[in-house]
Amino acid sequence: MKKIIIIIACVAITLGLFSSVFVFDPFKLNLNFIGRELTIEKTTNVVTEIKKISEFTTACFFEDRIIDQRKYNYFEKKINHKEQRNHNLGTIKKSAQSSWQKLKSATSSAIENAKQSSDSTVKGIAAAVGTAAKDIAVASGSSAKDLATSSAPALKDLVKADEVVVDSTEVGRIVFTVTTKVRAGYDLSKIEQEDLIVKGDTIMIKLPPVEIFDIIANPSDWSIFHREGNWDDTEIRNIQSGAKEIIRQDAINFGLMEKAEAFGKESLVSLFKTFGFSKVVLND
Amino acid sequence: MKTKSLFLLPLVALVISCGPSQEELLSARIQGLKEMAELGTVEYTVKKIVKTDDKAWYTYGNRKILFTCTAFIKAGIDMKDFSADAVDAKPKEKTISVTLPKAKILSFNMPPEEIKQEFAFITGLRDKFTPEEKQQLLVLGENDIKEDIPNMGIIEDAQENARLFFTALFSQIGYEKINIKFE
After folding, report:
1. Given CB atoms, is A199 within the 8 Å cutoff of chain B?
2. Are residues A233 and A208 in the same domain?
3. How confident is the model over A218-228, as pLDDT tens digits?
4. B48 and A44 in contact by Cβ < 8 A?
5. Residue-range domain boundaries for chain B
6. Which of B4, B8, B26, B35 to mutate against chain A (most A CBs within 10 Å)?
7. Domain check: are A153 and A252 in the same one?
8. With an 8 Å Cβ cutoff, are B127 and A25 in contact?
9. Looking at residue A24, what is its pLDDT?
10. Lowest mean pLDDT: which of A30-34, A234-238, B52-56?
11. ipTM higher than 0.90?
12. Could you please report the per-residue DSSP string of B131-179?
């Protein structure tokens, strides 16, 4: 009896654990969908508009395409130039010190040279002082020039303000595969009465330009192949709507319009011949 | 967690080694062109509410979602099925008799820009609807509209409009007695 109670308790505990994992899904295993699929409630399909059309579709472009979209998070990044400024200040200081040392030694040597002058006449002393003054002036000019040259780049950076730049990081990626159809042809409702001339067994028709009627990519034509990050419904619709423009361009580049025109003219000629005309002239 | 990773590692390695590279995948594109001769004569605009209340006895909490969507359905005559034998034209007597193929659905278009998520409600420990689940629900909505097409009367309208179109065309090109039939 005790053994049976233990077995029942074990079974109950196991079932309890299993159902709590199933209900609470703590490991996000999406267990809610085990054994069942999503369903929709029955709602009415309401016909809101009935439009009379006369679209003669003459060519259809098919494409299986991959749409890869990435999502970025944009943020402002501050570039601080303080460190660079401090470094440059040091460079300028070193250049100034070196120039000052050079000037000091040039002045000392000029004074020394003047002192050692053997000519003790007034004229001789004046000449020696003049030479020394000239040497000091030359050395001073050279030092100033050196200082200006060596510190110019550093001075330029010194006035640079801190910058704010826009940077980005990838926060999501979604890859769709889509099967599309692009239908093109002639809108025959655009043919006016004067565009159609009958002379005996000859018919002349002025055709409107070929146009794209539909770019078809229904929900069942889309499949999410890969997804990273969170994508809301508006973002997904925007990607899918944007993809239609890419597909339209693909169709045009593939020669849909030219093919639709050629096939269309061929079909219309053969159609009007079956209606009893021996000559069919189509103009753009 | 460690055990799970150990189990997943060889599987991931296998997928990486067997699957196409990202570059190969992104350059993949299959294109084609088909010659057609379809005369669309009617377009129906159909609006639908796609909704689900995803609740079961074993789930803690509820989640609901509601979309509105629009589909454009075109129907008409596939002139590829039309042959010269189906025309009996007597230009001198100004009489023409044409047997057209039966109208059919030519296109079904449920564009993404006409789909809008109107409402979503999640409670308890339920997860949000993933984009894959939303896509799945919209496919169900699409299929529901497609299944309902035969009850809409679009084929009859397409045939009637085709009759009007050809009658106008034949009278414009000089026929006076016009007879249009459908197979």
Report:
1. no
2. yes
3. 999 999 999 99
4. yes
5. 39-182
6. B35
7. no
8. yes
9. 55
10. A30-34
11. no
12. HHHHHHHHHHHHHHHHHHGGGTTHHHHHHHHHHHHHHHHHHHTT-SEEE
Residue that wins the pLDDT comparison between A169 and B104: B104
Burial of A274 (0-12, 13-18, 19+ CB in 10 A): middle
Kind plus residue range of the DSSP H or E element containing B69: strand B63-78
Structural tokens at position B120: 């979503």
Q: Are A212 and A182 in contact (CB under 8 A)?
A: yes
User: What does DSSP say about strands B95-100 and B177-182: parallel, antiparallel, or unpaired?
Assistant: parallel
**φ, ψ of residue A50 in degrees (nearest 5):** -120, 120
* Same-domain pairing of A107 and A219: no
**For residue B138, pLDDT beyond 50:** yes
Q: Tell me phi and psi for residue A122, to 5 degrees.
A: -60, -40
How many residues are recorded in chain B?
183
A127 occurs within a structural domain: yes
| Residues A178 and A215 grouped into a single domain | yes
Distance from CA of A7 to the nearest CA of B (A): 25
How many residues can be counted in chain A?
A: 284
Mean pLDDT of B3-30: 47
Q: Is A173 on the interface with B (CB under 8 A)?
A: no
- Report how many domains make up chain A: 3
Nearest by CB to B113, which of A36, A50, A237? A237
Question: Which residues of chain A make contact with B60, given a CB cutoff of 8 A?
Answer: 23-24
A181 pLDDT more than 90: yes
Element (H, E) at B52: strand B30-53
**CB B174 to CB A198 under 8 A?**
yes
Q: Which domain holds residue A137?
A: 81-161
Q: Which of B65, B173, B179 to mutate to test the interface with A (most CBs of A within 10 A)?
A: B173
Residues A253 and A220 reside in one and the same domain: yes
Task: Tell me, yes or no, whether A166 lies in a domain.
Answer: no
Q: Answer yes or no: do A135 and A118 share one domain.
A: yes
Quick check: A117 pLDDT over 60?
Answer: yes
| Residues B61/B40, Cβ–Cβ less than 8 Å | no
Candidate from A190-194, B55-59, B90-94 with smallest mean pLDDT = B55-59
Listed by number, the residues of chain B in 8-67 with a beta carbon closer than 8 Å to a beta carbon of chain A are: 25-26, 28-54, 56, 58-60
- Cross-chain CB nearest to B91 (options A43, A51, A201): A201
Contact criterion met (CB < 8 Å) for B131 and A174: yes
What single letter denotes the amino acid at residue B145?
I
